[in-house]
Amino acid sequence: MCDLHDQHEHHSALLASGPQLSRRRIMQMLGAAGVTAAVMTAEADPAMAAAADTTPAGAAEYKAPEGLAEDSPAKATALGWITGNTDRITGLNAEIWENAELSLREWNSSLAEAGFLERAGFDVEFGTAGFPTAFTATFTYGSGGPVLGFSGEYDALPGLSQNKGVGHHDPREYVHDPFAPSYGPGHGCGHSALGTAAAAAAAAVAQAAKKHKLPVTVKFFGSTAEETLIGKTYAVSKGVYEGLDAFLDWHPSTANATGWGSTTAMTAVTFTFLGVAGHGGTPLGNKSALDAAVMMATMSEFLREENLAPSGRLHWVINNGGDIPNVTPEIAEISYYVREGSPARVQVLLDKVIAVSEAAAKASQTKVQHRITSACWNQLPSQSFAELLHENMRQIGPPAFPDAAHALAKELQESLGLPQKGMHDAIGDLTPPNPAFLGGGSTDVADISWNVPTVSMGAALAPIGTKMHTWSTAACAAAAPGQAAVVAAAKYLAATAVDLITQPERLKAVKDEFKERTKGVAWKTALPDGYEPPMYEPPAWFLKKTGQKWPPNNITWPPKRVVSQEKFSSLGPELAPQT
Length: 579
Hints:
- The chain is an alpha+beta fold.
- It is 36% helix and 15% strand.
- It contains 17 helices and 13 strands.
- The protein has helices spanning 23-33, 46-51, 73-84, 86-99, 107-119, 191-212, 231-237, 289-301, 303-307, 343-364, 383-396, 403-415, 445-449, 471-477, 480-502, 504-517, 540-546; strands at 123-126, 135-141, 147-153, 174-175, 182-183, 216-223, 246-253, 257-258, 265-274, 313-320, 331-340, 367-376, 454-460.
- The strands form 3 sheets. The protein has a 7-stranded mixed sheet with strand order 1-2-6-3-7-13-8.
- Helix 11 crosses helix 15 (480-502).
- It is globular, with a radius of gyration of 25 Å.
- The model is unreliable at 1-20 and 22-40 (pLDDT under 50).
């Protein structure tokens, strides 16, 4: 994804697009992708048609409207609250960064974020949609006002540990295993800042509403497991986000920008191969599950030329391949992310991947089973919402990066072999998305966007030219770049939310566009029937502190065991001895 939000996992295609393409090149790509004008009709693929750009003029003629964002006493109060509480806000970001907790296990991070909102006057309830570390925080003033939602995330990524503010790769947690050295988790996607800025924005709006007597309900959704695209996707299917009038979302990025592009729909699937273990020195008759996983990986690569459009993505990792070479692996697992422009296009590609798994199992004489771990739609954009947010971003200005932020950015860029341009210290122009959808990242916010008008934006937390999901982002997330970005992002979100409260016509425009885009589209979760989300059993202290019981009633506990019952492979009748 080549745009101002860089190659971030979730939101880059939403934001300002890259260089505009010629009509000839666009038609070439559309044809190559199998996305012709006929295919893009609502009848053929309603999800892609609804997310398409509707700007009458081309990108060259588009001019972002002005006069949407208005100064008001309430907005001044909200922005002033953020400025006055900068130390608390950046302190929360630093605390969550230090925790660096993985998806579904954000015990301390969720508590820290919930505590911040409780102190701001919110009522907090843990266990949203059955997830122990998910929570919903609610603030209401008066009655009859709009219901505004904010999105908070706080999970880290495995293997991306990095010392704060260090310009070269220097893992904070190094695992000294003589056979498999590795790194601990780290906030290589900046979710410590993401959840913090959203919580600060929600708190600021609440303070403004209370001071200026503005009826509103502010709901903050502390979401678990964003990195695995599980938390929000499943929660949406359970009706958690019903009743909202608008939803505001942001993500750390390499630039300060918003837009109204879409993202890719995605299905995450894990294939489990079951064979028969045996001594590596006497392998005859063993059935290697790892062989099957390797064959599947190899065969799936052959899908790329004839079966993968420019809008598609197919990537995999062998997450269980055995423990020691001297034991033939009896169980092996390989996980895929299958991405395309819409759920319908994902399904076509997924069916081909499943066929490859069956071929690998047959060739290796193993058994295979698969399970969907997550599935989400492409995001439904909102041009009117993006235009309002962009004007607020432009009026507030870019993050106030100190010299230390640019110095760290340039050290990282030098370390990574990139031009030393520092941090992006401007607000990106608002431009229509490229007419040809070329794919990219995915987000579980997408499913929310089909149920409530949603806007997303990026604020620069990582240096220009770098990428999310890297140790370099972890180096910045709670250092000078991230601490500036978290304050700026909170202000962008809060200012836009206040406009929705004080200018009912702005909220009406957003809701009218949403109604028009979703005509004829029946959203239905992409998760399979009977889906049970993966979970980890929380420590007893966490359950007690959050008032929860284990297990929640929406999962089977303990989960069904996966055990191979396969037999050794036959080599045929024994050969007569040679004489």
